Amino acid sequence: MVQTARFARFALGHFPTALEPMDNLTAHLRSRHPHVPRLWVKRDDCTGLATGGNKTRKLEFLVGEAIRQQADVLITQGATQSNHARQTAAAAARAGMECKLLLEQRQVRDEEYEFSGNVLLDDLLGAEIAERLPAGTDMQDRMEQLADTLRAQGKRPYVIPGGGSNPVGAVGYVECAVELESSPVAVDWVVHGTGSAGTQAGLVAGLQAMRSPTRVLGVSVRQEEQAQIDSVFGLAERTAKLIGADGAVGREHVLVDDRWVGGGYGVPTQEMIDAIRLVASLEGILLDPVYSGKGFAGLLGTIADGRFAASENVVFLHTGGSAGLFGYRGAFARS
Ligand SMILES: Cc1ncc(COP(=O)(O)O)c(C=O)c1O
């Protein structure tokens, strides 16, 4: 088994997360398609940090490292409705640190997008929205500039990359791989929405380090397939090295499907809206408009392609994000 115990860590979440059957949905789809696998959901939307989500696992290790370095302020960045920003704000509150957020206006939207959903929660959680910056800004550079300013004021900032996606953060998903590998269900596939790449990189690094036969399919929410494979593979290699499994990951272990991005990052698609309504109405589970909604649309499309066997166990990794629904009310308006 892969050991993650030697890394600095700050407890933030509820683990292991549940692995639940999606029996209603499986039965519904089996009445329509010939090759429907048994569907499960891994409830990383219930990780327990300010409405939960995949950043809790990453932040346990990132904040652990920040504490080890005696930081007193966390800086991070994301899109306006970033779930990562909201969870970092919550983690900072728990760790007794300040939190400064840089939000990138990747698309100009309405009042609700700009101020409701995750943005409202950022404020309640005590974070400061230090800057709202136009799309295309070098956000990493702006975070470094802010860190320099804070250091000059005598503060000790710790900069967390967008999505918490570096090898330290990805160790959180190595742990998720260990949970999946230890579960009584023989998991054939894990499917999830992939963005800044840390979730898929950690899963792939962890599974390959354990020589697991479980395959991971990332449904891209922002860039085309080869670019996303490059991002995930590069980070998975570095994560594998960090956990002492150098060389375990091959490019062939990184599977990405970019057919569900639609008009781009955060731009609603009909497939996303249909997937959210379907899962909510049959399973009582809330997906999100930017990641898990498109991820689930990708799962449904892949089932329709006949890529899975009826005998297989397919796990949808629910990475959270339902707070973002409130920033997208207009997309769900019934005509
Ligand atoms: C709800 C949700 N799901 C999935 C992802 C994608 O995970 P990753 O950025 O690790 O690829 C994110 C990232 O921001 C997210 O907020």
Q: Care to give the gist of this entry?
A:
This protein is α/β, with parallel strands linked by helices and about 325 residues long.
SSE blueprint and pairings:
Elements: E1 19-21, H1 23-30, E2 38-42, H2 55-68, E3 73-79, H3 83-95, E4 98-105, H4 111-115, H5 118-124, E5 128-134, H6 139-152, E6 157-159, H7 167-182, E7 189-194, H8 198-209, E8 215-220, H9 225-242, E9 255-257, H10 270-283, H11 292-305, E10 313-317
Parallel strand pairs: 2-10, 3-4, 3-6, 4-5, 7-8, 7-10, 8-9
Antiparallel strand pairs: 1-2
Helix pairs in contact: 2-3, 2-7, 3-5, 7-8, 7-9, 8-9, 10-11
The structure holds pyridoxal-5'-phosphate.
Care to describe what's here?
The chain has 335 residues and is an alpha/beta fold. It folds into 2 domains: 19-53 and 166-332, 3-Layer(aba) Sandwich (Rossmann fold), CATH 3.40.50.1100; 55-164, Rossmann fold. Helices cover 40% and strands 16% of the residues. The protein has 11 helices and 10 strands. The protein has a 6-stranded mixed beta sheet with strand order 1-2-10-7-8-9, sandwiched between helices. α9 (225-242) links the parallel β8 (215-220) and β9 (255-257). α2 crosses α3. The termini are far apart. 53% of the residues are buried. The structure holds pyridoxal-5'-phosphate (PLP).
Helix content: 40-55%
Uncertain runs are none
Report the bound ligands by name, code or SMILES: pyridoxal-5'-phosphate
Report the top-level CATH class of the largest domain.
Alpha Beta
Main-sheet strand order equals 1-2-10-7-8-9
DSSP strand count: 10
Can you tell me the CATH topology of the largest domain? Rossmann fold
Counting DSSP H or I runs of 4 or more residues, the number of helices is 11
**What is the CA-CA span between the terminal residues?**
52 Å
Query: Which structural class fits the helix and strand makeup?
Result: alpha/beta
Rg calc: 19 Å
Biggest sheet architecture: 6 strands, mixed
Shape: globular
Query: Average pLDDT, to the nearest integer?
Result: 97
CATH architecture of the largest domain: 3-Layer(aba) Sandwich
N to C succession of SSEs: EHEHEHEHHEHEHEHEHEHHE
